[in-house]
Design a protein that fits this description.
About 45% of the residues lie in helices and about 15% in strands. It is α/β, with parallel strands linked by helices and about 325 residues long. Strands 1-2-10-7-8-9 form a six-stranded mixed β-sheet, with helices on both faces. The protein has 14 helices and ten strands. The longest helix has 17 residues, at about 150-165. The chain has helices spanning about 1-15, 30-35, 55-60, 65-70, 80-90, 105-115, 130-140, 150-165, 180-195, 210-215, 240-250, 255-270, 275-290, 315-320; strands at about 25, 40-45, 75, 95-100, 120, 145, 175, 200-205, 250-255, 300-305. It folds into two domains: about 1-50 and about 150-305, Rossmann fold, CATH 3.40.50.1100; about 65-145, Rossmann fold (3-Layer(aba) Sandwich), CATH 3.40.50.1100. It is globular and about 55 Å long.
């Protein structure tokens, strides 16, 4: 544990001069609703590029040997990691190519291009991104930067929980969203490294519940139903992340689409913060009633908002139309 935890601390040192120290917000209303002593919301929607993904991207890309950087890097992502890699590559003056599914949020595609990366669109079926990425690696000899199944990405992501739990002590329960597993893998290492008593629970959309099923069966099973509003979590857990989850995560629960949307609404209306669906999943879990009440009542609970990148074009267009 000590050796692997050192990687989180080293990543935090590397990120200290480039990443934002994101705010930790609270809500008396949320405390009252849940019965918690205090709910602490770690707002990675205020991180550079609008999500925690900047942490892992920087920790990974900054360590790549110079000769590999010269050939360029490639990543595949539905949006948040794409933006993070694009910005990090621009800062470090590296050519970046990003493979994105053709159903990715238009604003995320535009933002990725805006940060300076070449965007190549692929199909939206499971495996399409990885297949096209591999073809481009064979053709152009790019260095792959995986969105979650890379130890340096995992350790960088884990600095989210390290920062939260180093700032406020103690935390009894930590709630983290699960997609490919990079965030919860890193955060569980960080949490257990700082306080072995803390409970770590992963929250996943019921409509993309491969991590839940994998955790229950003790082996990785692929994601089957991708019909979830939480677009950042439409990914199966990885070969590297799953063993970490098995070792350090105490439980995984699922939430419905309605619960995710209600959690977004709470953040927007009551706490006045813009949160994307994936980022609202931990709060959905907290409010779902699916967590043992003894882990919540009079406890200090950390929840991680993984990102805030959401397309609001239709919302503002509808507002304008009212006055035209």
């Amino acid at each position: 544990m000590i050796e692997i935890f050192k990687n989180i601390k080293n990543a935090y040192k590397i990120l200290s001069h480039v990443a934002n120290i994101t705010p930790i917000m609270t809500s008396r209303t949320l405390d009252s609703i849940t019965g918690a002593k205090r709910v602490l919301v770690k707002c990675e929607n205020f991180q550079r590029t609008g999500s925690f993904k900047f942490r892992g991207a920087w920790n990974c890309i900054s360590r790549i040997p110079s000769e590999e950087k010269e050939k360029g890097i490639i990543a595949h992502s539905s949006g948040n990691f794409a933006q993070a890699v694009a910005l990090v590559a621009t800062i470090l003056k590296i050519k970046a190519t990003i493979v994105m599914p053709n159903n990715a949020t238009p604003t995320k595609i535009q933002a990725t291009r805006g940060y300076g990366a070449e965007v190549i669109l692929c199909g939206s079926n499971p495996g399409d991104r990885a297949k096209m990425t591999e073809e481009l690696i064979q053709e152009r000899e790019y260095r792959l930067v995986h969105p979650f199944d890379d130890y340096d990405v995992i350790f960088g992501a884990g600095t989210t929980a390290f920062e939260l739990m180093s700032s406020i002590k103690p935390i009894d329960l930590l709630l983290v969203p699960i997609g490919g597993g990079g965030l919860i893998s890193g955060c569980s290492i960080a949490a257990k490294g700082l306080d072995p008593r803390v409970k770590v629970i992963g929250i996943e959309p019921k409509n993309a519940d491969d991590a839940f099923r994998s955790y229950q069966l003790g082996k990785r099973v692929p994601v089957e139903n991708l019909n979830t509003i939480a677009d950042g979590l439409r990914t199966s857990v990885g070969k590297l992340t799953f063993p970490i989850i098995q070792k350090y995560v105490d439980n995984i629960i699922t939430v419905t689409e309605e619960q995710i949307i209600d959690a977004m609404k709470f953040y927007w209306e009551r706490m006045k913060i813009v949160v994307e669906p994936s980022g609202a999943v931990p709060l959905a879990g907290l409010l779902s009633g699916n967590i043992d009440p003894s882990l919540i009542k009079n406890k200090r609970i950390g929840t991680i908002i993984s990102g805030g990148n959401i397309d609001l074009s239709d919302f503002f267009t509808s507002l304008k139309q009212k006055f035209n």
